[in-house]
Known about the structure:
The complex is a heterodimer of chains A (about 400) and B (about 400). With about 400 residues, chain A is of the alpha+beta class.
Amino acid sequence: MVSFALEEEQRLIQETVRKFAAEELRPHLRDLERAGTLPPALRQRFHELGLGLVDAPEALGGLGAGLVTAAIVHEELAFGDPGAAVALFAPHLAGQALLALGDEAQQQTWLGLFADTAGHQRLGALAYCELDGPVEGFATTARSDGEHWILDGNKSYVVNGATADVLVVFAQLDGISGRPGAAAFVVGRGTAGVTAGARHQLLGLETVEACSLVFTGCRIPNSQRLVGGSDFEAATQRLFARLSLIHAARQVGLARASYEAALAYTQERTAFGKPVAHFQAIAFTLADMHMDVEAARWLTWQAATRLDHGETLLCHEAAAHANEAAWRVADHGVQLLGGAGYVKDHPVEKWLRDTKALALFGPPSEHHALQIASAELGHAVGAALPSASLQPFFT
Amino acid sequence: MIDFELSKQQAKVKELAHQFAKYAIRPISLQADRDHRIPDDFMQRLNDMRSMMTMGEVPAEYGGEGGGVGEIKDKKGSSQRNRVALVGAEELAWGDISVIMSLPGPGLGGPPVQFTGTPEQQERFFSVFKKPGLHWGAYGLTEPSAGSDVAHIRTSCRKDRNEWVLNGTKCYITNGGRADWVVIFATVDPALGRAGHRAFVVEKGTPGFSVGKIEDKMGIRASETAELVLEDCRVPADNLLGGEAAYAEGKKGGFMSAMKTFDSSRPMVAVLGLGIARAAYEAARDYVRDHFVLGRAIPRYALLAEKLADMKRSIDAARLMCWRAAWMADEGVPNAKEASMSKAYAAKVAMAVCRDAVQILGAPGLEQNQLVEKWYRDIKVFDIFEGTGQIQRIVISKRILRDQPTF
């Protein structure tokens, strides 16, 4: 039965995060940008809301809420500040990888680190992309010596790579080429044989720390391989679907921020004797922005309900759609403010930078398009992950 | 609860409508377009499909099918008729848009009769549809010099004892030529603006009421679009919708009646456009699937694949805009902004999809024996009728701005 009505609990969570974003993130947006990192106290306050594991089962210390609720949380955080939204979410993609690929014991061990009272001091990361990888599978190798796996290779564009307490790494099982040989492992903080490269300086999302990683003889116990249940490839698809969903929700939040800023500004500023919003060229653009935000949000929510039932296609649609909509809205945001939008007195210029950065956090739209087309045409157009993407992306 | 899955009844409506669209409507689509008409015997079959896509224009208490399956209430007791109607309508439009627009029944004339009409009027005008044969209602608002600017209609009405005398011309009226009755909007005094509007039901055969030109159009050719002429047309006072009381000072009964129709009809029209867009998308997708092989140069193939993906996701997003507006209507929540957004957004998406479908087929897409050529012509009207894309943006922007702009 088609319904857009939020449950009471969802509404309360939405209100809580919206308030947090309005009070703790938005007023400090430029400070956070300059600092390039989040103050520990801010991390702690977010941790106290108990939303870091919103979509993890209660048994694992999560909230046990569905993915629509998760989408709401990510939209609201990104509405406050997209960079902080990524950086604040401490488990980052390690959490999603553990949920999609880990067994119960692994989830207890590693997700537990984020659930306990010191959870805000911990960070997760996912090392996925490679610049020297083969068409399918990975160049980073995982060799077994019986009791351990030994990882060797280079990983690029890893968010929280240098500081992660829980790092999930994709690598190729020694001797098995292509997708059947793809595997994932958890590497704990302080494990020998992991070297972080210099921090990337980014176009936007300045509070997000990312770097490349080099693995040289990195030994981890057998128990830290994530097998993804009976079907690793399908589990990996689910991981990227979850990631795409979060991503889409963040783009929606960013777009809404830009839309609301432009809506407020254009009603304040007057020209030719009336608010500029009262000229159709401006008003119609505002209407288009509003439509873009809403359409992207509903598609994201529908994708969330589908993924709750294991269906991944709409997550690709939502991510590609939100990327396009958010960029368009963010661009209009700057445009409607004119020169004021281009200078740093207003946040809209940051959001136009942030939206492009977000679009490359996770598989790019081109990848999503090929996944959609493959499903629709009934045969593979381009390779499914894990495989080389046309463009490298941050994870 | 946030939910985007169809209920069992909705799924059943969708399935039945799709089967009918696929096996009955599609086969006559091209010919109907060429002939500029739908065969009579087919109309009778359509009549039997009414309950499938009704928006409840004929309430059950007046002998109609009510909201059809849509009258089944959801758990909270809300009607789901707008949502059900949307689900069925998308499928039928996927079959052919002119066919669903020619569907016997009150059409757009239904909502004003239902929302503004007295019980006696509802009984009288809806009972027409109980009679054997094919019957239509229609909605006469647009005039040669008043389209989007509804408040400036010039068709006049003047009370003369127990009758009203109407003078003016209405244009672009769907099913206007064959309708048993048409809801005609007129003004007692143009200077009064919206407050001067009155809505009448003008019955076929009323002296002074005649059908003018039947339009020849770019698309939706099998749908009848008529000009209606009122020359000293005398309408019984009983045909003033809602009676005099509905137009007491400050009530703007006529104008509100005209506008209220749109709250339900705009999402409906929007989803009809998406039905066409989906048809065009599927044709393009199948063409790519059947005419290209994996061995073909991937870069070229990927370009088409990306276009297909963009079409698919845009249709899916636009559909949710329609569903949201319909859900609000079912919940009894004011939805004028959302109704306009669904229409504006869906029309834009549907136009782009039909354009891209022709492009993906290439030269064959231009040929008149290909439905994509027809859909490219049909879809343009969705950016125009039921409020142009521009007027939708005026409605939307007036509702998001704090103070009323003077555009």
